[in-house]
Amino acid sequence: MALLPSPSAPSNLWKRGSISLLGSSLPSLNTSAAFPNCRRKLGVGITKASIAVEQHAQETKVALLRIGTRGSPLALAQAYETRDKLMATHPELAEEGAIQIVIIKTTGDKILSQPLADIGGKGLFTKEIDEALLNCDIDIAVHSMKDVPTYLPDKTILPCNLPREDVRDAFISLSAASLADLPPGSVVGTASLRRKSQILHRYPSLNVQENFRGNVQTRLRKLSEGVVLATLLALAGLKRLNMTENVTSTLSIDDMLPAVAQGAIGIACRSDDDKMAEYLASLNHEETRLAVSCERAFLETLDGSCRTPIAGYACRNEDGNCLFRGLVASPDGTRVLETSRVGPYAYDDMIKMGKDAGKELLSRAGPGFFSS
Q1: 297: Cβ contacts below 8 Å, ≥ 6 apart
Q2: Which CATH architecture has domain 289-366?
Q3: How far apart are CA 140 and CA 158, in angstroms?
Q4: Residues 6 or more apart whose Cβ sits within 8 Å of residue 65
């Protein structure tokens, strides 16, 4: 099985837009008349990624919209997907230079030597992007929704979710067809306590390394080098990177309940920026937004952090209603508590279902459950 193909950038990747790295030395322009909410900044830097890089040194046109994103290949793929949808929907954004992509390095990207739970948990991949949004360095922020805390910073809103990708987890190994085929003592790498606890619950003989961090390419490289015998990655990310050839098998929802909001992209803007809110409203996929809202209500009720193994998934069932499934586990996987709800596929009903499921599992778990 081939690992680590270089993601190929579409031929129009750098057309009708630009890319910059926040923190570069940028010329200052007075654009307050065109952008009343902020004093705009324009600049072009050079970013290093696993895709083509082009420097627009001579560009002078002020971008109509600046997209803030992390710099990983997956984050950039999500930013380009957002850009392409905006360009297809709004002719003025399809003009040369109308959209600029701004790369922002987050705390979660800077500190890779420690487990996420040890360096702060919530907001590790969003804090600096939120700050750039509030400082008017960007106009919209593109996030993986499973990285977004259940609270949003003041003066920001998240009115848009793009259509959700496959929510399942992918099993990847060079020596085994599935988790069940791994010999006792095999090392499985993951950065997710949710995955660790569910793996150990079913396969307690495996050795799960929980600080298996880095972007998709880094994790696949570590796998190929024999650091671990297997790993689990979100299938959604592999699909967005066109890297599904690396998938050994796909885990069912019954075998591995996904993270809250897994596979969903969220786009935020400032609450006083009506123009950006209008742009984002045109991209919103309401079925995804409602499902994610249900799952996040569940997570918020549990007050989950990176130290808490929590999983939740809401979808439309064959009757058109919402089916929600939730799970909490002890970190060592010895105890797993699950619940489910069925109700109307409507915002208020789905929020209530998520909260009610969270309250039930809190009650069943009891004091000290998550420290076991």
Answers
A1: 350, 351, 352, 353, 354, 355, 358
A2: 2-Layer Sandwich (3.30)
A3: 9
A4: 86, 93, 98, 99, 100, 139, 140, 276, 279
User: Which amino acid belongs to residue 27?
Assistant: P
Cα atoms in the Cβ-side hemisphere of radius 13 Å centred on 306: 21
Architecture of domain 17-161+264-284: 3-Layer(aba) Sandwich (3.40)
pTM: 0.82
Task: Give residue for tokens 């959209």.
Answer: 99
145 touches 82 (CB < 8 A): no
Which residues carry out catalysis?
Answer: 147
At residue 251, the 3 state secondary structure works out as: coil
Backbone angles phi, psi at 360, to 5 degrees: -60, -45
**Class of the CATH-defined domain 169-250:** alpha beta
Instruction: Assess contact for 284 and 160: CB atoms under 8 A.
Output: yes
Tell me if 169-250 shares its fold with 289-366: no
Span 277-321, pLDDT tens digits: 999 999 999 999 999 999 999 999 998 655 689 999 999 999 999
CA distance 247 to 177: 10
